[in-house]
Design goal:
The protein has three domains: 1-41, no CATH class; 45-103, DNA polymerase, domain 1, CATH 1.10.150.530; 108-392, Aldolase class I (TIM Barrel), CATH 3.20.20.70. 32% of the residues lie in helices and 25% in strands. It has helices at 50-59, 66-76, 90-99, 159-162, 171-186, 213-224, 244-253, 268-274, 277-280, 283-291, 315-324, 350-362, 383-392; strands at residues 2-9, 12-19, 22-30, 33-36, 43-44, 100-101, 106-112, 118-123, 129-137, 140-144, 148-150, 165-168, 200-203, 236-240, 258-262, 301-307, 330-336, 366-369. The protein has a ten-stranded mixed β-sheet with strand order 7-8-9-10-13-14-15-16-17-18, with helices on one face. Strands 1-2-3-4 form a four-stranded antiparallel β-sheet, covered by helices on one side. The protein has a two-stranded parallel ribbon with strand order 5-6. The two termini are 46 Å apart. 41% of the residues are buried. The chain binds S-adenosyl-L-homocysteine (SAH).
């Protein structure tokens, strides 16, 4: 252990204590004596919202604009170490590095599907894995990200739901999926706002975002923030299985991203069977929350409807759906079920999917058929992860 030379920083004098080359403490030199400043475990800066970082930096005596500068380095320029931040004085970088780290999610593997869908499997610090799926379309590249390891909603048709719930993701584990995918896509090029390729973000991967409310809201602030990843709130969508109190809370919170609701049935009887959440928040309560949701001008709620053959894909279902959604600014995404081996459900024939769409359109609803993409790489919610877990056994 040695005491490095004194540093003058921000008109204070500091002594830096170093053990095995690692800065472990700063002593602030005060007229009254030494003030022991820092030995706490390091905090991952990416786990902090801008305001939280501002508050911590203020304690260190850093200038107020430093938080925004750090966010810009991390999210706009992809910095992975404080050393890269050359417009911050070296002493201050050392101070920051003694207090914070910039750990990233580990990209364990990625796979490209023949239809262009790319799947990413991330490894977390505790060994859990989560995944993101990049879906290229003509005019956009949508990244589908996860909000939890596993999921407690237990929807019967969903692979993630079948595996149970492990834990919530931290805000940085959510937002970092975007950063790492962007870096991967930038390849050899320098990561910068100009080289960014993802245009849209959907929280439709593993997990129920509204069951991890605080961390998801924090991640959304980073994803839509300036400084931050700077996505327009119009291009970010949160999808929920229908947690009514949290939908209301989201409405009150002022978070302006798009809302998608996985409706998936038109009667409580069927919805109870395929989505246990319906027993707590039946269709009527869910749609009442949607009706009262404070939408931004020219926005609509997206209703997702997974079509399961013989379960929810009849003409009567389509007609009931048109009645249920009356008075709600809605658009409908029809998702023909993406089967997994041994599943009890079937994908409807294409003609049944088309007929369902037609009925909705005849009643003046916008209804799109959203194919589950990347079938050859198991890109439906949770499938790559399940394959890895099985292979490991
Ligand atoms: N928990 C959130 C987000 C994750 S699921 C929610 O329920 O919305 C994202 C979407 O994928 C949901 O609309 C869900 O109904 C759909 N989904 C899940 N498994 C599917 C499968 N095997 N085939 C087609 N869509 C599926």
């Amino acid at each position: 252990m040695y005491i490095d030379r004194t540093h003058t920083y921000n008109e204070c004098r500091f002594l830096l204590v170093v053990i095995f080359g690692q800065p472990i403490a700063f002593l602030r030199i005060r007229a009254a004596g030494w003030e022991y400043l820092l030995t706490a475990p390091k905090i991952n800066i990416k786990s902090l919202a801008l305001d939280e970082l501002k508050a911590l930096l203020a304690e260190l005596g850093c200038k107020p604009f430093r938080a925004g500068q750090l966010f810009a380095w991390i999210y706009s320029r992809g910095a992975q170490s404080f050393d890269e931040m050359t417009d911050i004085a070296k002493t201050e970088r050392t101070l920051l590095a003694s207090r914070f780290d910039l750990a990233s999610l580990g990209l364990r593997r990625q796979e490209l599907s023949s239809d262009g869908t790319r799947k990413f499997l991330f490894e977390l610090e505790d060994g859990h894995t989560v995944e993101s799926v990049l879906i290229p379309e003509e005019d956009r590249q949508t990244l589908c990200i996860s909000s939890q390891v596993g999921c407690a909603q237990a929807c019967r048709f969903c692979i993630t739901g079948g595996g149970g719930f492990q834990r919530n993701l931290k805000a940085y584990e959510i937002a970092d999926q975007v950063v790492i995918v962007e870096k991967f896509l930038a390849g050899g090029r320098k990561y910068s706002p100009e080289t960014r390729s993802v245009t849209n973000i959907v929280l439709m991967g593993m997990g129920e975002p509204l069951a991890n409310f605080d961390e998801v809201v924090k991640a959304l602030a980073i994803i839509t923030g300036e400084p931050g990843l700077g996505f327009s709130t119009r291009r970010v969508t949160l999808s929920t299985a229908g947690l009514v109190p949290e939908i209301e809370k989201l409405g009150r919170s002022g978070v302006k991203v798009n809302l998608a609701v996985s409706l998936n049935a038109t009667t409580d009887e069927v919805r109870d069977r395929i989505m246990p959440v319906n027993k707590r928040y039946p269709i009527k309560a869910l749609l009442a929350a949607c009706r009262h949701y404070p939408l931004e001008p020219r926005r609509r709620i997206t209703f997702e409807y997974v079509l399961l053959h013989g379960m929810n894909d009849s003409t009567e279902d389509a007609l009931r759906l048109t009645k249920l959604l009356r008075g709600i600014k809605a658009k409908i995404n029809l998702i023909p079920y993406n089967p997994s081996p041994g599943s009890e459900f079937k994908r409807p024939p294409d003609a049944a999917v088309k007929r369902f769409q037609q009925i909705l359109q005849e009643h003046d609803y916008t209804a799109l058929i959203r194919e589950s993409r990347g079938r050859d790489i198991s890109a439906a919610c949770g499938q790559l992860r399940e394959r890895e877990t099985k292979a490991e056994k």
